Amino acid sequence: MRALVFDGRLKFSSEYPDTIARPGECLVEVLRAGICGTDLELMRGYMDFRGIAGHEFVGKVVGGDPGLLGKRVVGEINVGCGSCDLCKADLERHCPNRTVLGILGRAGAFANYLSLPARNLLEVPDSISDEVAVFCEPIAAAYEILEQIRLSGREKIAVIGDGRLGAIVALVLKAEGACPVIGGHHLEKLQRLAKLGLEADLAEKLKPGFDVIVDCSGSEEGLLLALRLVRPRGTIILKSTAKESSGLNLASAVVDEISIIGSRCGRFAPALAALAEGKIDPRPLISAMLPLSDGVSALSLAAQPLIFKVLLSAVNSVLPA
Ligand SMILES: [Zn+2]
Ligand SMILES: [Zn+2]
């Protein structure tokens, strides 16, 4: 199969051994994959990753569960052991023995095929196009915030970071009745976000006093800024993972009694429902779509500051002999 393979350097291979379905799992032919900040971090050494990355995808089931065969699906990316207390509590995504698609112990979506258990797969309604469905994972990650904190709609909310994750988080919060302001550094991006109906401003112009801050900056400075902008007893939600982290003084979090909440993956069902209802349209966030064979350029493109979402198209689907 064709695949983007990382062994310390990212390379495209047209003759990589086919991913085969793990016992009891489904084989999924990838149609589209999305590149996110986590993928870029993996390529910079995060988690000592090796192999095929990619965890945002829409695909077609080509093997395994007969009930899903031929169906277009998206897939939750964490696969738990199924027997520990966290798995039994429906929290597979926190299982200490989990594998994570394209991140931890499991080949990912930057390839023609991937393997996931049927229980991870959700059928995509025909009304949702591939280009929209591929956003399900990051949108689910944004919905996770609403599973972690209750919002009345009256809170003052800031989203730090004008990149793809910040944009998606703001779109979701807005779709669910909140009025977030995005604080960023790139005027051009902020203007583009404003065109999507989002309130967006330079981060340095934001005034302290926010009830809730969602840090999607991908850097430690985002958390520092959040600590400066949040009101006493407010909440900071940390959404992005960054490899680098130096000494951080959290004294102000103690003095001001700030709740700091880590937030990662979410359930797909609310995200898929929101997409089906047309509550969220992520398509304006697509900066480019490139074939898998141009994956190396696609990842460098995604790393450029003014680029939002870069998609990979895994199909020009003549399967390798
Ligand atoms: Zn992601
Ligand atoms: Zn488990």
Layout of helices and strands:
Layout: E1 3-6, E2 10-13, E3 25-35, H1 37-43, E4 56-63, E5 72-75, E6 78-79, H2 85-88, E7 99-100, E8 113-117, E9 121-123, H3 130-133, H4 136-148, E10 157-160, H5 164-175, E11 180-184, H6 187-195, E12 199-202, E13 210-215, H7 220-229, E14 230-238, H8 251-255, E15 259-262, H9 268-276, E16 286-291, H10 295-302, E17 309-313
Parallel strand pairs: 10-11, 10-13, 11-12, 13-14, 14-15, 16-17
Antiparallel strand pairs: 1-2, 3-4, 3-8, 3-17, 4-5, 5-9, 6-7
Bound molecules: zinc ion (2 copies).
One zinc ion binds at residues 80-81, 84, 86-87, 95, 97.
Explain this structure to me?
- With 321 residues, the chain is α/β, with parallel strands linked by helices.
- It is 25% helix and 27% strand.
- Strands 3, 4, 5, 8, 9, 16 and 17 form a 7-stranded mixed beta sheet that branches. A 6-stranded parallel beta sheet has the order 12-11-10-13-14-15, with helices on both faces.
- Strand 14, helix 8 and strand 15 form a beta-alpha-beta unit.
- The C terminus is likely disordered.
- The structure holds zinc ion (2 copies).
- One zinc ion binds next to helix 4.
Principal-axis shape equals globular
Bound molecules: zinc ion
Give the strand content.
25-35%
Backbone CA Rg: 19 Å
Give the averaged pLDDT, no decimals: 93
What is the overall number of helices? 10
Topology order in helix (H) and strand (E) letters = EEEHEEEHEEEHHEHEHEEHEHEHEHE
Oligomer category: single chain
- Poorly predicted sequence stretches spanning 5 or more consecutive residues: 317-321
Fraction of residues in helices? 25-40%
